[in-house]
Amino acid sequence: MIQRIQTLYLFLTTILPLLLLKIKTLKFISGNGTEYYLRFKGLYSAGSDLTATLIKPAWIIAVLIVGTSLTSLLTIFLFRKRKLQISLCVIGLVLSAGHIVAIVFYYSQLIRVYNAVFIPVIGVFIPVLVVILFLLAWRGIKKDDDLIKSYERLR
């Protein structure tokens, strides 16, 4: 049912992770003024001359971002197969949770190794919002499935 509210949730879970390809996920500043930030390609360091150098690649974050978006997009177009949609929502939820775990891992590394101070940016909240939207979409698909099952029982 493509006109249902869960389609909007799934559309947002397709678009929001792709925003992380353009914006910073984490941002830190160390005591000596060096700025560290996490993007989808990896962990970067920017000195006072603002030239960014890649410190550590983070290909797993890129894989999780693209995997979440593709899973969500596929889920939208499988609206006739509700069981498969529910399974894909769970897979998207696991991918999003994995993204959050990866962010927490890099956060702890930056705090521990570089003794940097965290500065909140919007990119930190996007994976959490994606998890919430996947849960809402899963709940909407489950309601539709239960409704159709109840109609089939009445026949």
Outline the secondary-structure elements.
Elements: H1 5-19, E1 26-30, E2 35-38, E3 42-46, E4 52-57, H2 59-77, H3 82-114, E5 116-118, H4 125-154
Antiparallel strand pairs: 1-2, 1-5, 2-3, 3-4
Helix pairs in contact: 1-2, 1-4, 2-3, 3-4
* Total count of domains: 1
The biggest beta sheet is recorded as: 5 strands, antiparallel
Architecture per CATH nomenclature, i.e. the level-2 architecture: Up-down Bundle
**Total helical segments:** 4
- Enumerate the strands of the largest sheet in spatial order, edge to edge or round the barrel: 4-3-2-1-5
CATH topology name: Butyryl-CoA Dehydrogenase, subunit A, domain 3
Give the CATH level 1 class: Mainly Alpha
Mean pLDDT: 88
Radius of gyration: 19 Å
Query: Would you tell me the structural class of the helices and strands?
Result: alpha+beta
Number of strands: 5
- Spans of at least 5 consecutive residues with low confidence: none
Amino-to-carboxy terminus distance: 21 Å
* Helicity, as a percent range: 55-70%
**Percentage of residues in DSSP E strands:** 5-15%
Explain how this protein is built:
This protein has 155 residues and is of the alpha+beta class. The chain has one domain (5-154): Butyryl-CoA Dehydrogenase, subunit A, domain 3, CATH 1.20.140. It has helices at 5-19, 59-77, 82-114, 125-154; strands at 26-30, 35-38, 42-46, 52-57, 116-118. Strands 4-3-2-1-5 form a five-stranded antiparallel sheet, covered by helices on one side. Strand 3 and strand 4 form a beta hairpin. Helix 1 runs antiparallel to helix 2 (59-77), helix 1 runs antiparallel to helix 4 and helix 3 runs antiparallel to helix 4 (125-154). The longest helix has 33 residues, at 82-114. The protein is elongated. The mean pLDDT is 88.
